[in-house]
């Protein structure tokens, strides 16, 4: 149930199978407080039969179980979840410090961001409605996103607020613009990163 390298998990699964045993991985999400109260999110990586058999025992530790796929998939989805949460923590800190440097109330910023993709996230807002539907027609163009990001970074620079993650993000938008995606919807960044990773684009330009 620990967060370990997926290849270690795969090796353990293979070793168990070679000895005639089956294994599933069930890393958990949420916090130590949830562990105490039995309200963990359980990320079950196993066959349907394995997960169904283990569910009564697992639910003693949590109140929500997600079948993530076959053995080894639990740790993979936890790794992605933690990566995103940890990186967003640092990016959020940049935004919060810029708010403070600009004299903005954190409560006001929180209220605004809670109603936009900044607070709700692209997994649940922009992507399902645009790029994941194969629609790259611009609701908000990459060119405009690049411009706005640049202004924010310029302001931060003038106020001596370090924004390393924002600067790195601008380079991703630079890549998309260089690839001719400037007038596409900003959710097309997903396609650009896919191509940069050597994967096939899901949406034809």
UniProtKB/TrEMBL annotation:
<dbReference type="GO" id="GO:0050661">
    <property type="term" value="F:NADP binding"/>
</dbReference>
<keyword id="KW-0520">NAD</keyword>
<keyword id="KW-0560">Oxidoreductase</keyword>
<dbReference type="InterPro" id="IPR036291">
    <property type="entry name" value="NAD(P)-bd_dom_sf"/>
</dbReference>
<dbReference type="Pfam" id="PF14833">
    <property type="entry name" value="NAD_binding_11"/>
</dbReference>
<dbReference type="GO" id="GO:0051287">
    <property type="term" value="F:NAD binding"/>
</dbReference>
<dbReference type="GO" id="GO:0043718">
    <property type="term" value="F:2-hydroxymethylglutarate dehydrogenase activity"/>
</dbReference>
<dbReference type="Pfam" id="PF03446">
    <property type="entry name" value="NAD_binding_2"/>
</dbReference>
<dbReference type="InterPro" id="IPR029154">
    <property type="entry name" value="HIBADH-like_NADP-bd"/>
</dbReference>
<feature type="domain" description="6-phosphogluconate dehydrogenase NADP-binding">
    <location>
        <begin position="1"/>
        <end position="67"/>
    </location>
</feature>
<feature type="domain" description="3-hydroxyisobutyrate dehydrogenase-like NAD-binding">
    <location>
        <begin position="72"/>
        <end position="191"/>
    </location>
</feature>
<dbReference type="InterPro" id="IPR008927">
    <property type="entry name" value="6-PGluconate_DH-like_C_sf"/>
</dbReference>
<dbReference type="InterPro" id="IPR006115">
    <property type="entry name" value="6PGDH_NADP-bd"/>
</dbReference>
<dbReference type="InterPro" id="IPR013328">
    <property type="entry name" value="6PGD_dom2"/>
</dbReference>
<protein>
    <submittedName>
        <fullName>Oxidoreductase</fullName>
        <ecNumber>1.1.1.291</ecNumber>
    </submittedName>
</protein>
């Amino acid at each position: 149930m620990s967060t370990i390298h997926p290849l270690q998990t795969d090796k353990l699964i293979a070793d168990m199978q070679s000895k005639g045993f089956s294994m599933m991985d069930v890393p958990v999400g949420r916090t130590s407080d949830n562990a105490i109260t039995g309200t963990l999110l359980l990320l079950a990586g196993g066959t349907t039969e394995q997960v169904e058999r283990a569910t009564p025992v697992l639910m003693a530790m949590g109140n929500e179980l997600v079948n993530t796929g076959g053995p080894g998939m639990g740790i993979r989805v936890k790794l992605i979840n933690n990566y995103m949460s940890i990186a967003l923590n640092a990016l959020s800190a940049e935004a919060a410090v810029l708010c403070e440097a600009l004299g903005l109330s954190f409560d006001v910023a929180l209220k605004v961001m809670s109603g936009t993709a900044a607070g709700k996230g692209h997994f649940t807002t922009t992507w399902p409605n645009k790029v994941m539907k194969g629609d790259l027609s611009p609701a908000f163009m990459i060119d405009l996103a690049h411009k706005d990001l640049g202004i924010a970074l310029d302001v931060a620079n003038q106020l001596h607020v370090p924004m390393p993650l924002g600067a790195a993000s601008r380079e991703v938008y630079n890549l998309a613009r260089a690839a001719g995606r400037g007038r596409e919807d900003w959710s097309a960044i997903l396609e650009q990163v896919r191509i940069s990773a050597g994967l096939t684009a899901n949406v034809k330009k």
